[in-house]
Design goal:
Elements (H helix, E strand, L loop, with lengths): L2 H15 L1 E6 L2 E9 L5 E9 L2 E5 L3 H8 L9 H12 L3 E3 L2 E7 L3 H16 L9
Antiparallel strand pairs: 1-2, 2-3, 3-4, 4-6, 5-6
Protein name: DUF1828 domain-containing protein
InterPro entries: DUF1828
């Protein structure tokens, strides 16, 4: 398999395994093929507020971690790790939701950044002995 075939195969796999559902005229649900720490698909919600786009996890990531006993007390090592990940990927937390805002033309890159950030945040479960 050469480079062109690999790229084509990957994008075909992504196209077949990523599901976009229109929820309203300005809201879309994206089920990605990428898994969280519960082995469930990471789901994103996109709100198009022309020309700005907001991409969020709808609170799933932090809720899932808290369900597994994780807390993020201000100043704790977990809190510091969480906020360093948020900063690394230009993410914010609002009402318990991890989100990113971007202009329409930056959607692909912003979507990639939030996915990478959510995967990294989910990886905090490997540090279960860190308070």
């Amino acid at each position: 398999m050469d480079t062109v075939e690999m790229r084509k195969a990957y994008f075909e796999w992504l196209r077949e395994n990523e599901k976009y559902t229109e929820l309203s005229t300005n809201s879309i649900r994206i089920e990605t093929p990428f898994l969280d720490n519960s082995l469930e698909h990471i789901v994103l919600y996109v709100t198009n507020d022309n020309p700005k786009i907001i991409i969020t996890d709808n609170g799933r990531t932090l809720d899932n971690l808290e369900t597994h006993g994780f807390t993020f007390k201000i100043g704790s090592p977990r809190y510091i790790l969480l906020h360093s990940i948020l900063k690394m990927f230009d993410l914010d937390i609002f009402d318990g939701e991890v989100h990113i805002e971007c202009m329409e033309e930056d959607f692909p890159f912003a979507k990639q950044k939030i996915l990478q950030g959510l995967i990294r945040i989910n990886d905090l479960t490997f540090l279960n002995d860190v308070d």
